[in-house]
């Protein structure tokens, strides 16, 4: 029933109202994702440049051994070496 109600509303809505709602949705989506993306990019550049920097910045202070830190860095599924995997760590 909800979909039919939306379709009925869509047929009778003014185009300017739809544009305003669409832009508001786009803005709030950007607002929610832009700040974490920028922070993640800064952390990535400063602390995850290579495995040695990552080890000295995160692993050594946490008491993680060098072998375990190398495994965390090079894991094919969740490794920190691949920047696409950073979403799993956030």
Number of strands: 0
Helicity level: over 70%
- Which regions contain 5 or more consecutive residues with pLDDT less than 50? none
Structural class estimated from helices and strands: mainly alpha
Q: How many domains comprise the coordinates?
A: 2
Overall pLDDT score: 82
- How much beta, percentage-wise? under 5%
Summarize the biggest pleated sheet.
Answer: none
Q: Specify the overall morphology.
A: elongated
How far is it from the N-terminal to the C-terminal residue, by CA? 38 Å
**Count of discrete alpha- or pi-helical segments spanning 4 or more residues:** 5
Topology pattern, helix = H, strand = E? HHHHH
Rg of Cα set: 22 Å
Quick take:
The chain has 90 residues and is mostly helical. It contains five helices and no strands. The longest helix has 33 residues, at 15-47.
Describe this structure in words.
This protein has 90 residues and is an all-alpha fold. The protein has two domains: 1-45, no CATH class; 48-90, no CATH class. It is 77% helix and 0% strand. The protein contains five helices and no strands. The mean pLDDT is 82.
């Amino acid at each position: 029933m909800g979909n039919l109600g939306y379709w009925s509303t869509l047929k009778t809505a003014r185009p300017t109202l739809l544009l305003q709602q669409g832009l508001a949705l786009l803005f709030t989506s950007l607002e929610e994702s832009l700040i974490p993306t920028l922070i993640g990019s800064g952390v990535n550049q400063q602390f995850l440049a290579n495995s040695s920097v990552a080890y000295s910045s995160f692993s050594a202070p946490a008491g993680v051994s060098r072998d375990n830190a190398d495994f965390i860095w090079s894991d094919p599924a969740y490794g920190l070496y691949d920047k696409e995997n950073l979403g799993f760590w956030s």
